[in-house]
Amino acid sequence: MLQFMRDYARSWLIKIILWTVVASFISTIFLVWGVGREISAGAVAMVDGKKITLEEYQELYNRIYDFYKKQGGDIKDETLAPIIKKGTLDSLIIRRLQLSIAKQEGLIVADEELVDEIQGRDMFKRDGRFDRDIYMRILRGSRINPSQYEDGVREELLIKKVENLIKDGVKVSKKDVRDAYIRLNEKIDLDYFILAPSHFINSVAVNQEKLEGFYNNNKPLFQREEEINVEYIAADLKDFEKDIQIGDTRINDYYNNSKDQFKVEKRVKARHILITFPPDADEQAEADVKEKALSILKEIKGGGDFADLAKKYSQDPSSAVKGGDLGYFSRGQMVKPFEDAAFALKEGELSEPIKTQFGYHIIKVEKIEDERTRPLSEVREDIIKSLKTTEAREKARAELEMIKKGSDLKSADLNQVTKGHSSIIVSTGSFKKDDKGYPVLGKTAFALKQVKGEVSDIVEDGGKIYILRYKEKKDAFIPTFEEIRGEVERSYRDEEAKKMVDLEAGKILEELKKGKEFNKTLEEFKAEKKGTGFVTRNSLISHLGRDSIQQVEDAVELIHTVFNTKKGDYNKIKSGDRYYIIYVKGLSGIDEEKFKKEETEFTNRLLSQKRGHIYQLWIENIKRQAEEKGRIKIKKEFV
Questions:
Q1: Do the bridges between strand 459-461 and strand 464-474 make them parallel or antiparallel, or are there none, so unpaired?
Q2: CA 81 to CA 73: how far, in whole Å?
Q3: What local confidence, expressed as pLDDT, does residue 280 receive?
Q4: Average model confidence (pLDDT) across the chain
Q5: Phi, psi at 114, each rounded to 5°
Q6: What CA–CA distance (Å, rounded) separates 228 from 287?
Q7: Which pTM does this prediction carry?
Q8: pLDDT band at 189 (very low <50, low <70, confident <90, very high)
Q9: For residue 187, what pLDDT is reported?
Q10: Closest C-alpha to 310, from 298, 321, 294
């Protein structure tokens, strides 16, 4: 699911999913920070003169952080992190705007509605009935008085009324339903190959004049970053490990004192079939999806192969192509309802449809590995390696500390002060600020005062311990053509090959349409012929290879072009700097009888999706209008 979000982070669907996740946290977050509380930490934003406090922001951000961490995501991921940070603040801003609109429209929440809502919440029930003692105990535990909580619930219900006001005006026609059903269920069978710049690199004509012209017109491409030149002394940990012997007593002591380190949590290997519902699905839409899941479960219990049915029905794009296989996972890696169900099953058992925020899942557990502690025999070599590295690190640091204390390294001859230290090397190097090869050394070098002889602390990078001494700063520069002729030629060939791809793709398509054999074209370009089999729009990208299709815009254009190509015809689709040359072997329309059976359920799902889309557009519109009118002010570091 997270890979799906990274790949398609710009789409409106992901905005809805993120908004729904955020909204689910907002609806309970005031149990932690209350309603209208003034926080001395200050505001991260103001909406119509009212604060959004740093505490509100941090509390919501932390909840979303924890949620995505449980999904196996890296919150520092360059794609996900900005989405989640922006989503956190946007959701708090939008909540304020929604409440303003509720006030403008004269919407109110009657006391009876408020009471029904609170008494209907499961967390306040005992044996299926509202329990006031539980209600008061939970509020006291959260340090919230009843009036604060009730104000928060009233706001939540007001926002729901605003949402319903917008959604109730959205309709779908019979034609909308049929067209959408066709888009979802019609299938296509392709043969294709990929035409890439690599096919033409060696065909690019090169001479001195062309290369010099390319260099002169593209000098910024060849600019070198500024660097810090240093002298350094270094100790390689491997040299110190050579003579270290680790005896059985130390190994046994380490193992016995660190058994927690060798615990392997219980984990299960499972498959699942996911039938999704829109993030804002109403009760009927959810019920329809559950009914669909139940019918699939019945098919499995009737002897259907789980993997085959997952490929046929599952709407999880990453696992469907693998027959629903999720591999092994332990607790904390899946959303809680899914996790609880999976860990409650025995090997070979099926779950009933399990509801999560993504839809309904049918889970089959294939293997269970109980929690265990890895035996000493299994981890012995790891322990030896760890103890050797630790001892080597201590010895290397101690030796560098001795050298540093015994001499004035700012001015000393480093070769002289390291004499007698056979495991210490002296050398020079240049490092960039964000040096990929030596990240610690790069940062350390740029942190030195730019004074000749300035000495760093002892640092470790890449299995070696260093002390750096500042030598000089080398400003950013562009090398001469003669110095980098080979690099210029490679860049020139790459650029020209990209142009040739554009030209050749058009020629190839024209020749194929005139009757040239597909296989002959493959032979000419030494390209590999691939096939998709019959696939839907939803599964096409997975079959073509998502790694080759980097942008959602490319994916949308590719799907549109493919499904608008007639059976027996050829076409080309550009994605990045490459082309898909396709041949449509077959087209499969919808099953009319099946459509009649599913039309009502599908109509409800489509209506729910359309309402979600329209509501998301409305949210973005009210926020944009508020920004244009200066009603929203955001602290600089949160923009």
A1: antiparallel
A2: 10
A3: 63
A4: 86
A5: -60, -45
A6: 64
A7: 0.57
A8: very high
A9: 92
A10: 321
